[in-house]
Specification:
The protein is 31% helix and 23% strand. With 652 residues, it is an alpha/beta fold. Among the domains are: 153 residues, Roll (Luciferase, domain 3); 144 residues, Rossmann fold (3-Layer(aba) Sandwich); 122 residues, ANL, C-terminal domain (GMP Synthetase, Chain A, domain 3). An 8-stranded mixed β-sheet has the order 12-11-8-6-7-14-15-24, sandwiched between helices. Strands 5-4-17-16-18-19-20 form a 7-stranded mixed β-sheet, sandwiched between helices. Strands 22-21-23-25-26 form a 5-stranded antiparallel β-sheet. Helix 12 links the parallel strand 16 and strand 17. Helix 2 packs across helix 3, helix 11 crosses helix 12 and helix 14 packs across helix 16. It binds 5'-O-[(S)-butoxy(hydroxy)phosphoryl]adenosine. The site of 5'-O-[(S)-butoxy(hydroxy)phosphoryl]adenosine has 23 residues, from helix 12, strand 20, strand 25 and strand 26.
């Protein structure tokens, strides 16, 4: 573990939003008087009906000491506001002609600059178009789009009329799309003819058509023309986006929403069952996304801010669209991939637009690091002043390369720890206030009360290691699992009653810095994307030749974790390499490319207890190639299977 400390660069501290003593004072106040602290912070937004002081925080995490046994989370609950008005209308006066979205296409020749005024006009028209299609407040709208400005337009148009968007990442399969449409009961899907990535097309409309065979409740499909490729078009059901925009009234009054009205649903993988619909609401979410965006990235009016995530993930929601636009920033949206046309694309784009703040994932850094320094050094990157990292722990080698080669040792790196469920960043350096340690997300943001607990829930003090929980609420926290509040309570508040359980393990050092060590549940983190092992297993067992499957993560040089699948075939099936290929293709088709197993081992038997429970601990060790330390195997029903598993292990 690296012991290096990088103090705040002097030049950076001078102009930063907040310094070390400012951070300490604000952090202390935020925990001592959360309602007072957030009442003040909430004023960064324009409210239609202001919240009253006693409605700022109304929270119960349940648990033993709670007055009320139920779990409920409400912030600013008697206030009303409109998210789109906060992201657009209020900026028209001071910065109507400022660029809101800079768009860089997959092809470097394609780009667009959309001002706040233009974005406001387009969102207003599309909001009217949605209303004309019969979309009402509270309706769920599924968005299955590539990284084009129309994705942000669709999100903001939903927010403007109080519809709840549910974005499904464009890399997901028709089956995954169908599952998400059906789960939230949406009657409308917004998609594109095709997506474009690294010069190749992605058949989004065709995927949607396939998904709708399994989601008969959908009555309306809106199609953005992106490539002009040939698609099927069902008259009556399908509508071109550009036709709707052309016909729509350009004036739309933003509809007041209660602070606790739902803003969006975003599906994420857990340790069991199907992906859950994480539900975020309006007021608290936007306060938290905007405030963290401003403080963590030290954003000023002249910054060119670039987050390389996809709007299909929460990072895209909070830190490409909602946080930056609420702050009136210029946010860059990139359609392509880091390695096309070549592996200097990120650095080219930084120079092209004069990007000052750059936020990406460790997996991207590792893959570009492998391409060598020369590709970076052909570019200037002189505009950069701050770098960010998100999605998984960043290994110290990648951190050092990012700092030295990309940032020329000039730019602090904010390693931001958070989750789909948290709505915004919870543990992070504030770049003008907190000295950095490579690999540590450092200290909690305002209002965040992390605790490290042992397996029994005992709170561990000082330098220690255990499971990470958050002891109290913050405004950006998810409110429920859509349609299944009981699952929300079970998943997050039952392991350690009265506390939010993150699912992550962590170490706290002698300076109080947090070091996230990874998931402690059956979730794996592949290239910064969450995948439930249970989901991959159920895709595998759906194959006609598969009897049983167990999936675990193992360390992977580029992806952080890779997917290792143990597969037991039906009697009489041949364990061939061709079948392995077929299984990989099968999982890609069932879930999407991000779920592709990296290694498959055919296993005549899986290690089980006498009661039939698969001992994943053993499977994990073998996948990690650490079969010398399997621990206690005496409870196995048939210890013999382990010998076979070790002999035929795939990660050597
Ligand atoms: C899980 C959440 C939040 C945006 C992207 C992922 C891991 C995330 C870090 C970080 C160490 C991290 C955790 C977390 N994670 N950021 N900076 N350091 N681990 O969102 O898909 O909901 O995944 O990603 O394990 O629980 P997500």
């Amino acid at each position: 573990m690296s012991q290096d400390i990088y103090p705040v660069p002097a030049g950076f501290a001078a102009g930063a939003r907040i310094d070390a003593s400012g951070y300490e004072a604000a952090y202390r106040r935020s925990l001592e008087d959360p309602a007072g602290f957030w009442a003040e912070a909430g004023r960064r937004l324009d409210w239609i009906t202001p919240y009253s002081p006693d409605a700022v925080k109304d929270v119960s995490f349940g648990g033993p000491g709670a007055a009320s046994g139920d779990v409920h989370i409400r912030w600013f609950h008697d206030g009303t506001l409109n998210v789109a008005a906060n992201c657009l209308d209020r900026h028209l006066g001071p910065r109507g002609d400022k660029v809101a979205i800079l768009w860089e296409g997959d092809n470097p020749a394609d780009s667009r600059a959309i001002t706040y005024r233009q974005l406001h006009a387009e969102v207003s028209r599309f909001a009217n178009a949605l209303l004309a299609l019969g979309v009402q407040k509270g309706d769920r709208v599924t968005i299955y789009l590539p990284m084009i400005p129309e994705a942000a337009v669709a999100m903001l148009a939903c927010a403007r009329i109080g519809a709840i968007h549910s974005i499904v990442f464009g890399g997901f399969s028709p089956d995954s799309l169908a599952g998400r449409i059906v789960d939230c009961g949406s009657k409308i899907v917004i998609t594109a003819d095709e997506g474009l990535r690294a010069g190749k097309t992605v058949p989004l409309k065709a995927n949607t058509d396939k998904a709708l065979d399994q989601a008969p409740g959908v009555e309306t499909v809106v199609v953005v023309r992106r490539t002009g490729g040939k698609i099927g078009f069902q008259e009556g059901r399908d509508h071109w986006y550009h036709d709707l925009i052309a016909k729509a009234d350009p004036v739309n009054e933003p509809a007041p929403q209660n602070a606790e009205d739902p803003l969006f649903i975003l599906y994420t993988s857990g340790s069991t069952g199907k992906p859950k619909g994480v539900l975020h609401t309006t007021g608290g979410y936007l306060v938290y996304a905007a405030m963290t965006h401003e403080y963590v990235f030290d954003v000023r009016d002249d910054d060119i801010y670039w987050c390389t995530a996809d709007v299909g993930w929460v990072t895209g929601h909070s830190y490409i669209v909602y946080g930056p636009l609420a702050n009136g920033a210029t946010t860059l949206m990139f359609e392509g991939v880091p390695t096309y046309p070549d592996a200097s694309r990120f650095w080219q784009v930084i120079d092209k637009y004069g990007v000052t703040i750059f936020y990406t994932a460790p997996t991207a850094i590792r893959s570009l690091m492998r391409e060598g320094e020369a590709l970076v050094k052909t570019t200037s990157r002189a505009s950069l002043r701050l770098l960010g990292s998100v999605g998984e722990p960043i290994n110290p080698e990648a951190w050092a390369w990012y700092h030295k080669v990309v940032g020329d040792e000039r730019c602090p790196i904010v390693d931001t720890w958070w989750q789909t469920e948290t709505g915004g960043i919870l543990i992070t350096p504030l770049p003008g206030a907190i000295a950095l340690k490579p690999g540590s997300a450092t200290l909690p943001f305002f209002g965040i009360a992390p605790q490290v607990v042992d397996a029994e829930g005992k709170v561990l003090e000082g330098a220690t290691e255990g499971n990470l929980v958050i002891a109290d609420s913050w405004p950006g926290q998810m409110r429920s699992v859509y349609g299944d509040h009981e699952r929300f309570v079970q998943t997050y508040f039952s392991t350690y009653p009265g506390k939010y359980f993150t699912g992550d393990g962590c170490r706290r050092d002698e300076d109080g810095y947090y070091w996230i060590t990874g998931r402690v549940d059956d979730v794996i983190n592949v290239s910064g994307h969450r995948m439930g092992t249970a989901e991959v297993e159920s895709a595998l067992v759906a194959h006609p030749k598969v009897a049983e499957a167990a999936v675990v993560g193992y360390p992977h040089d580029l992806k952080g974790q890779g997917i290792y699948a143990y597969v037991t075939l039906n009697a009489g099936e041949d364990p061939t390499d061709a079948l392995k290929k077929d299984l990989v293709a099968w999982v890609r088709r069932e879930i999407g490319p991000i779920a592709s197993p990296d290694l498959i081992q055919f296993a005549p038997g899986l290690p089980k207890t006498r009661s039939g429970k698969i001992m994943r601990r053993i499977l994990r060790k073998i996948a990690e190639n650490e079969f010398g330390a399997l621990g206690d195997t005496s409870t196995l029903a048939d210890p013999g299977v382990v010998t076979d598993l070790i002999e035929n292990r795939q990660n050597r």
